[in-house]
Design a protein that fits this description.
Elements (H helix, E strand, L loop, with lengths): L8 E7 L4 H8 L10 E6 L6 H6 L5 E3 L6 H14 L4 E6 L9 H9 L5 E5 L6 E3 L3 H18 L11 E4 L20 H12 L4 E5 L1 E3 L16 H7 L1 H6 L5
Parallel strand pairs: 1-2, 1-4, 2-3, 5-8, 6-9
Antiparallel strand pairs: 4-7, 5-7
Length: 246
């Protein structure tokens, strides 16, 4: 099977007010001489010391002057990948919950021409999870089952943001139009997930680790707000199914 050459893949790490966790994430990226992918960091308008933490590593950085939302941050990474001629776009969070050392796991199925989209899963073989909050654990299970019912894809972790895509999915003329303004928030990831799976493109899961910090009183483990942000995460599915969006 054909394998894409070195530096045709890029990993995009999205940071927003992650502070020391951003540094913890970047510290785990293999040295340039030991990896076959490039890296770019998106700083989505952080107001803490995230920018200073990122600057220590000498990686390319795209900084938004203000917080524009997760979808907008991912789009900046996608545009960077397309403009740079990359074939594979991998995305992960800079909050120390994902392990950059596992990026090659997500790139491999696309490089082997076995998939157009690779979903990381803490529940797939080889995956693991630590300290996942009970509500998040339940939502992941319910959401994965729901996605299976509406698309037929037998996935286990469709809320995991550690993913890889063939960049051709996002080029002009594709039916997956990520450049719509309504996808600047949490909607984007679910939109792409549903569009890829419902269009019959090749998708697979690979096991990855997801590590939440040990529970401490008063410590937030996510920027996601209860109720309202969960609606934004789920909303693309009914909107697309009812053809209210495209």
């Amino acid at each position: 099977m054909s394998v894409l050459p070195r530096h045709k893949a890029i990993a995009t790490i999205v940071c927003y007010n992650n502070g020391a966790n951003a540094a913890s994430t970047l510290e785990r990226i293999p040295p340039a001489a030991e990896r076959d992918f490039d890296v770019v960091v998106i700083d989505d308008g952080s107001t803490d010391d995230t920018s200073a933490q990122i600057a220590r590593f000498g990686l390319p950085v795209i900084r938004h002057d203000q917080n524009r939302g997760l979808g907008a941050a991912i789009k900046s990474g996608m545009r960077y990948a397309l403009d740079g001629g990359y074939d594979i776009f991998c995305i992960l969070a800079g909050n120390a919950k994902d392990d950059p050392g596992e990026i090659p796991r997500l790139l491999e199925p696309i490089r082997r021409e076995e998939a157009d989209y690779v979903q990381g899963s803490r529940f797939a073989p080889g995956g693991s999870q630590e300290h996942t909050p009970a509500f998040r654990f339940a939502m992941v299970k319910v959401h994965a089952r729901f996605i299976q019912l509406v698309t037929g894809f037998r996935g286990t972790d469709s809320l995991n943001g550690f993913r890889a895509y063939r960049t051709s999915l996002f080029k002009d003329g594709s039916d997956i139009n990520v450049w719509q303004d309504w996808l600047d928030g949490y909607q984007l990831e679910t939109y792409v997930h549903y569009k890829v799976l419902s269009s019959g493109r090749r998708a697979t899961e690979v096991g990855v680790s997801k590590t939440y910090p040990a529970k401490k009183r008063g410590i937030r483990y996510s920027h996601i707000r209860p109720v309202i942000d969960w609606w934004w995460i789920l909303s693309p599915i009914p909107l697309l199914m009812l053809r209210l969006r495209k």
